[in-house]
Amino acid sequence: MIHVTRDLLTVLLGQAAERDPAETNLRLSATPAGDFESDTGLDPETPILTHFTPDVAESVNAVFGVDLGTPAGHGGTRFLSHPDGFLGVSRTDDLAAVVLVAVPPYDHESVAAFDRSGDGVELAVLDAIPPEESLPE
């Protein structure tokens, strides 16, 4: 089962709707359930998708083959939109351990989770707010 916060999913669906008819492709990062201030009812080590990382440094990636846009240990999940309406994983998709795919009309009923091979994975949407983060001074 894959867990995602409702707020993150809402933002992702909004991004997909704004980019339509172009595809959306974002890296997602998780926060352990134990880091949340409120009780999520999950094991403290359970990852909950809470953030997306915009694709940055693509030209550097192409030259050096190093992904500078994803923090170490993060990004094992991707969010993709398929404006053509295909709710599944295709051969041309950037794959990760888990892929969330959204299709028009980009609402909470038009998104599903899949593993790398394209098999469906249960998606649980949580009404939980991730811990507040700040940049070091």
Number of beta strands: 8
The description of the largest β-sheet is: 8 strands, mixed
The shape, in one word, is globular
Give the mean pLDDT: 85
* Widest beta sheet: strand line-up: 7-6-5-4-2-3-1-8
- In angstroms, what is the radius of gyration? 15 Å
Helicity level, as a percent range?
10-25%
- Straight-line distance between termini: 37 Å
Q: What is the number of helices? A: 2
Helix/strand/pairing category: alpha/beta
Beta-sheet strand percentage?
Answer: 25-35%
Residue windows where pLDDT falls under 50 for at least 5 positions: 57-75
Order of helices and strands: EHEEHEEEEE
Describe the structure using short key phrases.
about 140 residues; alpha/beta; 8-stranded mixed β-sheet; 2 helices; globular
Q: In words, what does this structure look like?
A:
By secondary structure, the protein is an alpha/beta fold. The chain has helices spanning 6-19, 58-64, and strands at 2-5, 25-32, 47-53, 77-81, 98-102, 111-115, 120-121, 123-126. Strands 7-6-5-4-2-3-1-8 form an eight-stranded mixed beta sheet, covered by helices on one side. A hairpin with an 8-residue loop joins β5 and β6. The longest helix is centred in the N-terminal third of the chain and has 14 residues, at 6-19. The relative contact order is 0.26.
